[in-house]
Amino acid sequence: MAQRTSRILDRLFDAAPGSARPNASEDSGANLTRRLFLTAGCLCAACFSPVPSFATAPRVKKQAPAFYRLMLGDFEVTVLSDGSNMLPTAKLLRGDTARIEAALKRSFLPDVVETAHNSFLVNTGSKLVLVDAGAGSLLGPGAGHLVSNLRAAGYQPEQVDEIYLTHLHADHIGGLMTGNELTFPNAIVRVNKRDTDYWLSDANMETAPADAKRFFQAAIASLTPCIRAGKLSLFDGDADLVAGIRAKAAYGHTPGHSAYMVESKGQKLLLWGDIVHVAAVQFDIPTVTIGYDVDAAAAEREHWRQFADAADNGYLIGGAHVPFPGLGHVRRDGETVYTYVPLTYSATG
Question: Which among 30, 41, 190, 266 has the fewest CB atoms less than 10 Å away?
């Protein structure tokens, strides 16, 4: 190629009007010009040479491990994603249909919304506490990823000292078991006794509608092994559990639905379970409830109470179904409207 290009350049120099080919005795600048032309020709030829393509690398088709850390005073809080599932809002949300549709549209969401499942790991320095245990195998392949994300975050299931359940729905308790074994073999499981009284009752299950019996079955299957192992501990109402973490009654979604206030050095984070299922709708319209609420009227009252308290006092909230990592603040925008403000990502935790 270089020889061919040289011959072409020779002919170009010969054909150029009023010019003569440079020779070795002439100005070295002419020879430099000729060499530059030759080099340029070789480079241009290389531009059209075949090169390997890297676009054929296989697609990964999965997300990175989903955990997020932040410091709350002296406590380290790690949000662990258990995955997500599709939520048919048109079927499940209860309220003004037109307003619900408008709220979804404003957030560029369809009427089937992908909902997050978040759990929260609190390292107090003396205790490792997990709030909600994920779905395990109860909700299909979209969920059940809590343990893999816990390990990716640097912890092992055996290190968990205590598990606090916000309530006994399947997506919060299924992860207590892996097959026939306790997933967190050294952990004490704490839950409000009003939920165990309701969900572990054979009489309640027998009188429940057919499509609701699965909630009772999931609770019995998940908690019975904990009871047999002597790992279940009950509380009622507001209760101090370990230093810096207090259970707070938030009844309505279930009879014993509870939130957990985490506090260290004056910084507060309320882990409020299922107060919100669809953030794009319920902050803007607190009257909207969901078909999973056992007592819809009480659940709506909790919306108003929890939103107002979080907005007026400025503490962080962590939501089980708020888009991952589910951490943010609540802002009051008038008498009846609230806005969720997600926490800004921090690379330092």
Answer: 266
Asked if the model's pLDDT at residue 323 lies above 90, the reply is yes
Statement to judge: residues 166 and 268 lie in one domain: yes
Question: Which tens digits make up the pLDDT trace of 33-85?
Answer: 555 444 555 445 445 556 666 667 888 888 888 999 999 999 999 999 999 99
Residue 52 lies in a domain: no
337: its two tokens: 């409207």
Q: Find the domain containing 194 and state its range.
A: 68-342
Q: Does residue 348 lie within any of the structural domains?
A: no
User: Same domain for 254 and 139?
Assistant: yes
Give the whole-angstrom CA distance, residue 232 versus residue 7. 90
Residues 14, 98 within the same domain: no
Record the pTM: 0.84
Q: Is residue 63 included in any domain, yes or no? A: no
CATH of the domain at 149: 3.60.15.10
Task: Give the pLDDT confidence of 151-169 residue by residue, as tens digits.
Answer: 999 999 999 999 999 999 9
Q: What is the number of domains present in the chain? A: 2
In terms of C-beta density within 10 A (0-12 exposed, 13-18 middle, 19 or more buried), how is residue 204 classed?
middle
